[in-house]
Design goal:
The chain has four helices and no strands. It is elongated, with a radius of gyration of 14 Å. The model has no long low-confidence stretch (mean pLDDT 86). The protein is mainly α and 82 residues long. It has one domain (3-81).
Length: 82
Amino acid sequence: MEVSKIKEALLKQKNMNLSGSLYHKTQLDFTYSTNYIEGSTITLDETASIYDNGTILATTNKVIILKEAIETKNHFTLFKYM
């Protein structure tokens, strides 16, 4: 598949805001992996919750560090502009 066609498909999926699309999965995996490398304790499920709902669904007895949640949210914004 040509790069231009992939780009076109990703932009279309971004605008449609489809959960489970290639754009959605790339957004989540890229954000989670980048933040994990930097030492974030936010899980992939929590990353998905922040992206999909703007909320954090944490397990009991877990403290979510506000800075990590903000960095996750900001990463989504950065990804949209890339």
